[in-house]
Design a protein that fits this description.
This protein is of the alpha/beta class. The chain is built from nine helices and eight strands. The strands form two sheets. The protein has a five-stranded parallel sheet with strand order 2-6-1-7-8, sandwiched between helices. The structure holds 2'-deoxycytidine-5'-monophosphate (DC).
Length: 224
């Protein structure tokens, strides 16, 4: 049976960077489940679906196909045949994904796709419910945490570096992060919680290199 690594935690804990590096080192497939929720958010935004109306959402989802392709080691997400990968990382899409991922119909749409990728491949999958719902029998599970103020500063520095701050301040970014954390961890369906058997890693005080070393050594104990 292929190996699977579940990597859960709130936004800004460095899951994506970590997962990509580990996937490279171990030659595992990296699966970014947040990108799938973001892709559906792009669809809801562009179709003007009333996201306050669960029935309207269910109807809209009937016409949607989401596909994942891995091209040159990068995951790309297609919605109804269109590559939407370049549109996933705006603040508008982040917010919409956090709101629409609360719905059972949205989660159900993506669950089979996520599980199917772990059937034939060694995977490292990051998200919010990988260890609890998507891959409850994962080979090893991690739950990354970091203080909200540390995550906000990381995000702020990233936006400055990319020249994409556009009016945001450290305070507004931290407020958004806290709001998203609250929504993600208090929703009824598949909330963000640590699986009982997940290893918690607080990344607040660790450098990326320290995090990677710690996680790789724990994985090596489990898969060798
Ligand atoms: O990891 P991310 O920031 O790209 O995720 C975007 C949103 O999708 C996030 O607010 C919560 C949601 N999400 C989820 O509900 N379950 C997952 N497995 C991954 C993401």
């Amino acid at each position: 049976m292929p190996y699977s690594i579940a990597l859960d935690g709130p936004a800004g804990t460095g899951k994506t960077t970590m997962a990509k590096l580990i996937a490279d080192k171990l030659d595992f497939l990296y699966v970014d489940t947040g990108a799938m929720y973001r892709a559906l958010a792009v669809y809801f935004l562009s179709s003007g679906t009333d996201t306050g109306d669960e029935k309207a959402m269910e109807e809209a989802l009937r016409d949607v196909t989401v596909e994942i392709k891995h091209e040159n080691g990068e995951q790309r997400v297609y919605v109804n045949g269109d590559d939407v990968t370049a549109r996933l990382r705006t603040e508008e899409v982040s917010k919409m994904a956090s709101v629409t991922s609360q719905y059972a119909a949205v989660r159900g749409k993506l669950l089979d796709l996520q599980r199917s990728l772990a059937i034939d491949n060694d995977v490292i999958m990051d998200g919010r419910d990988i260890g609890t719902v998507v891959l409850p029998n994962a080979t090893i599970k991690f739950f990354l945490t970091a203080k909200p103020e540390v995550r906000a500063l990381r995000r702020y520095n990233q936006l400055v570096e990319q020249g994409k701050l556009s009016g945001a301040t450290l305070e507004t970014i931290e407020a958004e992060i806290r709001e998203r954390d609250y929504r993600d961890s208090h929703r009824k369906n598949a909330p963000l919680i640590k699986a009982d058997d997940a290893i918690e890693v607080d990344t607040s005080e660790l450098s990326l290199e320290e995090e990677i070393n710690q996680i790789i050594s724990l994985i090596s104990e489990r898969i060798n």
